[in-house]
Design brief:
200 residues; alpha/beta; seven-stranded mixed beta sheet; 6 helices; globular; binds 5-O-phosphono-beta-D-ribofuranosylamine
Length: 200
């Protein structure tokens, strides 16, 4: 798929990756449209960022829609309304239903704060990932942009970026440095999809 990326972001927390992508769209580095943001967390920074960017923002969760089918149906209504053709997960803590993945033909991207397949899978999120890197005494870590399928962190890897693990790094210092390169690699991967260098 080339160009005309109409992105639905899914985010649960701060949304700094989402913001990096929105900024790239705004200053012309990425040819795409930030069409809507969906969050399961009504207090998320991601929803606040969306509102301040005038991007349609939706809180959809098991609280707002306790019945699975109705929750999925609401998401699909939103996709249709905004002509969504790609989903970008940016710190989304829930598993995406198969119906949602299929709606966009499998064009669902995620970013993981390590070099998959290392330090991935169930339970590997947030600071746990960086603790695992430190405990394993890895010399390098980084971030991975990958396609999402029904397994955690198992979809096709699209791009990775590496950084050195420094002798005095803590999980927290690593998290901060990895997040900075996540912003670069996520935007770059989307730009390559938009211009046809990466085909998904
Ligand atoms: C990032 O570390 C990302 O790799 C992981 O969740 C975190 C989200 O951060 N999937 P933010 O909400 O984009 O700031």
């Amino acid at each position: 798929m080339q160009n005309n990326l109409n992105i639905a972001f899914f985010a649960s927390h701060g949304g700094s990756n989402m913001q990096a992508i929105i900024d790239a769209i705004k200053d012309g580095r990425l040819n795409a449209n930030a069409a809507c943001v969906i969050s399961n967390n009504s207090n998320s920074g991601a929803l606040q960022r969306a509102r301040s960017e005038n991007i349609p923002a939706y809180h959809i969760s098991t609280k707002t829609h306790p019945i699975d089918e109705l929750r999925i149906q609401r998401m699909i209504e939103i996709f249709i309304e905004h002509n969504i053709n790609i989903i970008v997960l940016a710190g989304y803590m829930k598993k995406l239903p198969t119906e949602i993945i299929e709606f966009v033909g499998g064009r669902v991207l995620n970013i993981h704060p390590a070099l998959l397949p290392k330090h991935g899978g169930e339970g590997m999120y947030g600071i746990n990932v960086h603790k695992s890197v430190i405990e394993t005494k890895d010399k390098i870590t980084g971030a991975t942009v990958h396609l999402v399928d029904s397994e955690y962190d198992r979809g096709k890897i699209l791009q990775q970026i590496s950084i050195d693990v420094l002798p005095d790094d803590t999980a927290e210092s690593l998290a901060e440095r990895v997040l900075a390169v996540e912003h670069i690699i996520y935007t770059d991967t989307l730009a390559k999809i938009a211009n046809g260098d990466i085909i998904i």
